[in-house]
Amino acid sequence: xxxxxxxxxxxxxxxxxxxxxxxxxxxxxxxxxxxxxxxxxxxxxxxxxxxxxxxxxxxxxxxxxxxxxxxxxxxxxxxxxxxxxxxxxxxxxxxxxxxxxxxxxxxxxxxxxxxxxxxxxxxxxxxxxxxxxxxxxxxxxxxxxxxxxxxxxxxxxxxxxxxxxxxxxxxxxxxxxxxxxxxxxxxxxxxxxxxxxxxxxxxxxxxxxxxxxxxxxxxxxxxxxxxxxxxx
Length: 232
Hints:
The chain has helices at 10-22, 35-43, 55-63, 103-112, 122-133, 137-140, 153-158, 169-172, 205-215, 221-226; strands at residues 2-6, 29-33, 50-54, 73-85, 116-118, 144-146, 164-168, 178-183, 191-198. With 232 residues, it is an alpha/beta fold. It has 2 domains: 2-76 and 194-226, D-Maltodextrin-Binding Protein, domain 2; 78-188, D-Maltodextrin-Binding Protein, domain 2 (3-Layer(aba) Sandwich). Strands 1, 2, 3, 4, 5, 6, 7, 8 and 9 form a 9-stranded mixed β-sheet that branches.
């Protein structure tokens, strides 16, 4: 069985797929690329059994009949966290709280940062929208650094390309050279639901649907938590 996903959920999907095999389901050959690239390949007609992307991206693919609308199933909810470069090269501890008390403090941090790293995925899109809503685009645009496709914000921090980074918590946890300050505060939180769907090119839609059901089962819950995701 063949699947494609965005980079943001590659690790949790790999572990979920391994657990699925142990439960008697087929081996899942998973390829993870940038979300935009994944969607374009599905649109181009490349053959997959399952597609895993941000839920809104899957809805767009469903509208064009590239995936089965009825099969779309939320898999994980991902929260955006804030990271800074660690003072040493070791993987830094992860804060379990929030990075700032409120949106005012986040705005102050953005203004003070020399370079601000953000992702190419849905979290990055939402961050730009929020900055624009605050009327700060002109103020910080020349300091915004978008991670290259397939490159996590954590690497930008570790390599010194940025001094403040915002990306899904799951992408920052355990990465060398990164200190996680915590999640965004409630009044400016950014969360993304990643979902799976059966591709219309699948030769075994019923088996693919079983795989999705397993990924949403109680047996999969602990795997999601280990990767710093929440249930949607």
